[in-house]
Write a structure and sequence with these properties.
heterodimer, A: about 375 residues, alpha/beta, TIM Barrel, DNA polymerase, domain 1, six-stranded parallel sheet, three-stranded mixed sheet, 14 helices, 11 strands, B: about 280 residues, 3 domains, five-stranded mixed sheet, three-stranded parallel sheet
Chain lengths: ~375, ~280
């Protein structure tokens, strides 16, 4: 389907609209906030929304009646620089539909990166790679981007075949994830911290498109973290798009996405393994609409309350309201003498109080609370 | 005795040591040596001295304490005493003599000032935090605009942080010079070396500024507005949270932030006049 003429602003609007569901914020400064409360840190755009893929859930799938547009690498560079100089963004998030074949698309993404970095751009760059991207291009992307990765979309070969018939899960996704991890490791061995860009790998899941339970997603994240050094999984709730084969399916609730993010932090920052979270899941393998860490603590009541001054770091981080940073502070600043001191260290007392004690002082009874 | 000192970390420390030796001394603070000397002339009596004559060197033990960082307690890094004094002095309500007395009361264990044990120490701690927040706000929400091949931005900080902002903008927009207009109608040029000046940051006259940026064009941020509007997910609109994240008091920082705050309040209109016709 050919593209009609659109002005630069119109094309920008169409393509930025295609990435608004993507989560990719990784820098610290929030320059502004949208009316839905999300902060804007990056210029998020697709290079084109024309795509040769026929993914069943995707609004940009080949053959769907939609306004098609694209931005040239120079235009993307110009807009990024303009926003960056205006101090409206911290960097660029670049994704794309597959133009012809993955190699050509990645080559165009690389054009953007080369021009940007070549012109002295020091901001953050996050690139979504295409399934089936060649290995040498992954290597080149790793030299220029701060974060990059291929979208896994779902949990296994059979589910992937259901929703993305044009690509092969094992070859186009898993093998590419292995290569991205290899590129990251190579970069880490070549460059010392602070002396150049050391990228990290990420991936994204479409939650609820194929009816996969959360247990499968959690297992997959655990596997990816072990095998491919996955730094950050992103989740996108499935929302049925009109005129797509999955338009009749039910949308995945937003809270599911939020609970999966919380679970992924438990795996990433708390050192938990998927098997530790099995008790949190219901009989069908889904997470409840509650903080998974709190649910886990309630299910292991015999492990609480923990004495703040005597417990180890690994015991402290299992308390709801105490994260890795706070647990670290507590371990370093012991003895802690009062709850006020704990609160000033960053402990969320509202959640932590039933699960901790200071000497002999503790909340009346955990049973009374839960 | 009347002791004159400059408004910087070194002289504040010296003045604190001098005050400890001469508790009945009167303190006179000035922006620079010339300012201090002029102020000292207004006082009668012979015992008028600059602080460096009384305390030529700050003891090494005290100097080392300046950079010591207390362990992290709370959600933020704890400031060193150097940061504490530097930023407190920049606060618009800072009374340097009061700060000197505070430091002198803890001397030689001056690090205790950071423990916020008394009201005065607490007051100055909050002042230093306010200044830090002001800088962060400016870094996040000011929007320089292109003008005459340079960037131009107006800032109206409550505290004395213009120099810090200039250093930051020179690094941020490192390929172009930036003209910064401060609240007192003074103009500064960041990355002045790119235009052949010797200095990196330079104060310039308003004529020079006008020559550089020409007639200031009407700011055109329609491209940014288009992008901003495209990022809203209408079904997830959360006015209360968004208002908390971008409070109305930030609106003074830039026209873009003012407009974005309005959009948070009233929503983004999907229709324009063209659609009607």
């Amino acid at each position: 389907m050919g593209e009609k003429y659109h002005t630069l602003e119109e094309r920008m609007k169409i393509l930025a609209d295609g990435t608004k569901y993507d989560s990719c914020n990784s820098t610290t400064t929030c320059h502004t906030f949208t009316p839905d409360g999300r902060c804007i840190q990056l210029y998020k755009t697709l290079m084109t929304n024309s795509c040769s893929g026929e993914c069943l859930y995707c609004p940009n799938r080949c053959g769907r009646e939609a306004t098609r547009a694209s931005l040239s690498p120079d235009e993307i560079v110009k807009i990024t620089w303009d926003f960056y100089r205006r101090n409206a963004i911290e960097g660029l998030f670049l994704s794309s539909g597959v133009i012809g074949d993955p190699e050509l698309t990645t080559e165009r993404q690389l054009d953007v990166l080369r021009t940007l970095r070549g012109s002295g751009f020091n901001g953050y760059v996050h690139v979504r790679l295409m399934p089936g991207v060649p290995r040498d291009m992954i290597r080149e992307v790793s030299l220029l981007a701060n974060k990059f990765g291929v979208n896994a979309e779902t949990t296994c070969q059979s589910r992937y075949d259901e929703i993305c018939p044009n690509f092969d899960y094992r070859n186009d996704i898993l093998r590419r994830m292995e290569w991205t991890y290899g590129a990251v490791r190579q970069r880490r061995s070549e460059v010392r911290y602070g002396e150049g860009i050391i990228g990290a790998n990420d991936t994204q899941f479409v939650v609820g498109a194929t009816g996969e339970p959360d247990s499968e997603i959690i297992d997959t994240i655990g596997r990816f973290m072990d095998s491919y050094g996955l730094r950050r999984p992103f989740f996108m709730s499935f929302d049925p798009v009109p005129d797509t084969p999955l338009s009749g399916n039910k949308a995945s609730p937003l809270w599911r996405e939020a609970r999966l993010y919380q679970t992924s932090y438990l795996l990433k920052d708390y050192g938990l393994k998927p098997r530790d979270l099995e008790t949190v899941l219901d009989d069908r393998g889904f997470l409840p609409d509650d903080d998974p860490k709190l649910v886990l603590a309630r299910l292991n009541r015999d492990a609480f309350p923990v004495d703040v001054n005597l417990s180890t770091y690994s015991e402290l981080i299992r308390v709801p309201g105490i994260g890795p940073r706070t647990a670290n502070r507590i371990v370093r600043c012991r003895p802690v003498l009062s709850y006020v001191q704990l609160a000033s260290m960053g402990v969320v007392m509202k959640r932590a109080r039933p699960f901790i004690k200071l000497g002999n002082s503790r909340q009346t009874d955990l049973e009374a609370f839960v | 005795m009347i002791i004159g000192y400059r408004r910087d970390v070194d002289d504040v420390l010296r003045a604190a040591i001098a005050l400890k030796r001469e508790p009945s001394a009167t303190l006179v603070c000035g922006k620079n040596t010339r300012d201090v000397k002029e102020k000292l002339k207004l006082y009668r009596g012979d015992a008028k001295v600059m602080v460096e004559a009384l305390v030529p060197h700050v003891p090494t033990a005290v100097r080392l304490k300046l950079r010591e960082r207390p362990p992290r307690v709370g959600s933020r890094c704890q400031p060193s005493l150097h940061t504490y004094i530097t930023f407190s002095l920049r606060h618009r309500q800072c009374v340097p003599d009061e700060l000197v007395r505070l430091i002198a009361s803890y001397y030689p264990d001056i690090g205790q000032a950071l423990a916020r044990k008394d009201g005065l120490a607490k007051k100055y701690f909050f002042m230093h935090m306010e200044v830090l927040r002001e800088i962060e706000r400016l870094k996040a929400h000011t929007r320089p605009r292109p003008a005459g091949g340079l960037m131009y931005v107006e800032i109206r900080p409550d505290h004395d942080v213009v120099d810090l902002y200039l250093e930051w903008i020179a690094k941020r927009v490192n390929d172009r010079a930036s003209v910064v207009k401060a609240h007192d109608d003074s103009y500064y040029l960041a990355n002045a070396n790119l235009l052949g000046h010797d200095l990196w940051i330079k104060k310039i006259s308003d004529e020079e500024a006008r020559r550089l940026i020409g007639d200031l064009p009407q700011d055109d941020f329609s491209t940014w507005e288009t992008y901003y509007d495209s990022q809203l997910i209408e079904s997830r609109r959360n006015k209360t949270f968004a208002k908390k994240m971008l409070p109305a008091k930030y609106s003074y920082i830039s026209p873009e932030v003012r407009l974005e705050r309005l959009k948070i309040e009233h929503g983004i209109s999907k229709h324009n006049l063209d659609d009607f016709f």
